[in-house]
């Protein structure tokens, strides 16, 4: 997610916060400092402060999700997920349109068929355990979103070098041959 889209997302969240929500958020952010917190009246001001402290950012929404969950505003987490989904759909990664389309098709098949082995495939694709745990926590009740996020994270890492063949190889290395076969069939690969 780029910085402009991230700030637009924060503004959308801030607009939906009540005064009471902002007070609760400030209470949870004790490490900011009392004087600074006293000057904060809007959610956006608090978010800016968290950005300055590198606690949240376009690729780091974990704290923001936790804070919203802690104040009972889980509905606002959907705004984050919606923005992240849009960012994954059109990343600025240098991939040509044809390869991106192949990966998107493969992603649909993999999401539908992979299941609980996604962690193993994630490791084969080069993601760190901390990244995988973050994905698991972020989408704790949605296996399909975990798989979709896994592929999105992998694409961010690989950038223009992301290839559908690497996804297929990782699936085969993890003995997920049926899923790999289905991806190849969908893409018309031999």
Report on this structure.
The chain has 190 residues and is an all-alpha fold. Helices cover 70% and strands 0% of the residues. It has 12 helices and no strands. The protein has helices spanning 3-16, 19-28, 34-39, 43-52, 62-70, 77-89, 97-113, 118-124, 129-138, 143-158, 164-173, 177-187. Helix 7 (97-113) runs antiparallel to helix 10 (143-158), helix 7 (97-113) packs antiparallel against helix 12 and helix 11 (164-173) packs antiparallel against helix 12.
Report the principal-axis shape: elongated
Question: Total number of helical segments?
Answer: 12
**Main sheet summary:** none
Mean pLDDT: 88
The gyration radius over C-alpha positions equals 19 Å
The share of residues in extended strands comes to: under 5%
DSSP strand count: 0
Helix content: over 70%
Taken in chain order, the helices and strands follow as HHHHHHHHHHHH
Low-confidence stretches: none
Structural class: mainly alpha
Ends apart, CA distance between termini? 35 Å
Jot down its keywords.
12 helices
In short:
The protein has 190 residues and is mostly helical. The chain is 70% helix and 0% strand.
């Amino acid at each position: 997610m780029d910085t402009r889209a991230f700030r637009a997302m924060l503004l959308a969240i801030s607009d939906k916060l009540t005064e009471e929500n902002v007070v609760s958020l400030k209470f949870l952010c004790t490490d900011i400092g009392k004087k600074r917190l006293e000057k904060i009246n809007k959610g956006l001001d608090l978010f800016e402060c968290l950005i300055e402290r590198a606690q949240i950012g376009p690729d780091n929404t974990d704290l923001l999700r936790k804070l919203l969950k802690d104040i009972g505003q889980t509905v606002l987490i959907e705004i984050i997920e919606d923005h992240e989904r849009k960012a994954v759909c059109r990343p600025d990664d240098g991939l040509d349109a044809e390869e991106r389309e192949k990966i998107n098709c493969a992603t649909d098949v993999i999401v539908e068929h992979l299941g609980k082995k996604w962690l193993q495939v994630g490791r084969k694709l080069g993601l760190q355990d901390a990244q995988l745990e973050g994905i698991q926590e972020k989408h704790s009740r949605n296996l399909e979103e975990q798989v979709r996020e896994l592929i999105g994270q992998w694409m961010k890492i690989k950038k223009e070098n992301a290839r559908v063949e690497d996804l297929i190889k990782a699936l085969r290395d993890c003995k997920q041959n049926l899923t790999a076969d289905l991806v190849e069939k969908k893409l018309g690969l031999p």
